[in-house]
Amino acid sequence: MAEAGDNVRVRGRVSFALWIFAMMLAVAALAGLAAVLFPGRPLAIWLTGIAAAVVFSGVARWRLRPELRQLEQAIQVLPEFDPDSASLPRMSELADSVQALHGTSQRLKKRLSRAQEDRLQLEALLDSMQDAVVAVDAAGRIQWTNHTMQRLIPGSSVQSPVRVGHALVQTVRDPEVLECVKTALAERVVCERRTTTLLPGRIFEVNASPMPGGGAVAVLHDITRIEQVERTQRDFVANVSHELRTPLTSITGYVETLLDHETLSPVAEEFLSTILKNATRMNRLTEDLLTMARVESPEAEMRPKPVRADVLVQDAVEAMRGLVRDEEAELETGATTAAEVMADTDSMMQVLGNLIENGIKYGRARNAAKSRVVISAREVSGSNGDGVGAVEFSVRDFGQGIASEHLGRIFERFYRVDKARSRESGGTGLGLAIARHMVESQGGTIRAESELNAGSNFLVTLPRAR
Ligand code: ADP
């Protein structure tokens, strides 16, 4: 529909219908003339009429053709069509078409300028971002980059910017960025990595996502400062814990000596026992804090290698059996599998050990004399769909269980369902947080299932070795 202000006047209008009418009159007149000139010869009259009609239809075609060509030219230049400068058809029958064309060109112009404005706004927004953004096509050629990215690319500047059309690999040499973009392009999945080699002394988080129409977009987030702050905090916690170790060992040693060798009054013995208990707790806390700082550090190296799942279970059970008194708990090995998983053996021993210890501490049923903990492992299909599969380790107890509102939070640092009970049993609230870190840095997952008064089941899934 034409909008207000869209009206255009077609200059020097001529009616094509009038033309046809005039030509038909001319044909009739020629036929009449032939009748006068060749009386009694109808064939001659007919032939004159037909010849005149053929000539006039040719003339009509010749008259119509430039008008239609002008219309065609006007359509071709849309939306730039300008009725004032363009040569327009002069026939009144085509006036509506010209009018409609003008309206369409006006609307197209408006839409295009709106789209252009939106694009500029989006570009300005992306340019104002602190993160570097680069979009590549399906072949890995740069389509667009924002200013931050241009500043990162060596040798480019805002004045001599974008290397659009160049392969990303010619512009960005960082292997992590290139690998991440390659994964997003080839596997159509979001890829996240961390790189320390893009710029000297800087650390970036790389996030590459596939774009719906093919190609991918990579976002590089500078996390140098965040990592510095985290490192300072980690170092502080580790240093404090380390400094506390020596005095705590000394307190524990002296108290143990006093308790062993002195003849003490019952009150003094009770006080010394309390001091020993708390010093031991503090010792565990400092040890757990040191472990936490170690596993959270990006330099912490996991060395996953193929190891049989049943061997891991067996070793963990044996190690814990040595620390548990028979009257305290019953450790059982359930069904296991000989499948190999990719695991850092030391860390997995620590994770399973921690879960078994929790099972012993919290896994005693209400009327039972001792806890019962069953450790098993089974093959499951892998979650990343690569067909390699995984192994799920299970540490199950039959104790009080964990209420559903706590289940999602028990892997947080210092989160304890029952603070008093945890403290009583020497807990620090860090065991599951450490376990989660260790499992995730080996490419695995950890979760808990539980039913109140029926027990808990902690499930650790690790990828199978290829
Ligand atoms: P803690 O040192 O206190 O045991 P954890 O991080 O190992 O710390 O566990 C966090 C909390 O989760 C515990 O305080 C306890 O409340 C709960 N929890 C862990 N394992 C079990 C379990 N097997 N049964 C019931 N509750 C558990």
Structure description:
The chain has 466 residues and is α+β, with helices and mostly antiparallel strands. The protein is built from 13 helices and twelve strands. The protein has helices at residues 16-37, 42-76, 95-128, 147-152, 168-171, 175-187, 224-261, 266-296, 309-321, 345-362, 404-407, 419-424, 431-440, and strands spanning 132-136, 142-145, 191-195, 204-210, 216-222, 305-308, 329-333, 340-343, 371-380, 390-397, 445-451, 455-463. β1 (132-136) and β2 form a beta hairpin. α7 runs antiparallel to α8 (266-296), α9 (309-321) packs across α10 (345-362) and α10 (345-362) packs antiparallel against α13 (431-440). The radius of gyration is 42 Å and the shape is elongated. The relative contact order is 0.06. The site of adenosine-5'-diphosphate has 21 residues, from α10 and α13.
Supply database-style keywords.
elongated; alpha+beta; single chain; five-stranded mixed beta sheet; binds adenosine-5'-diphosphate; 466 residues; Beta-Lactamase; five-stranded antiparallel beta sheet
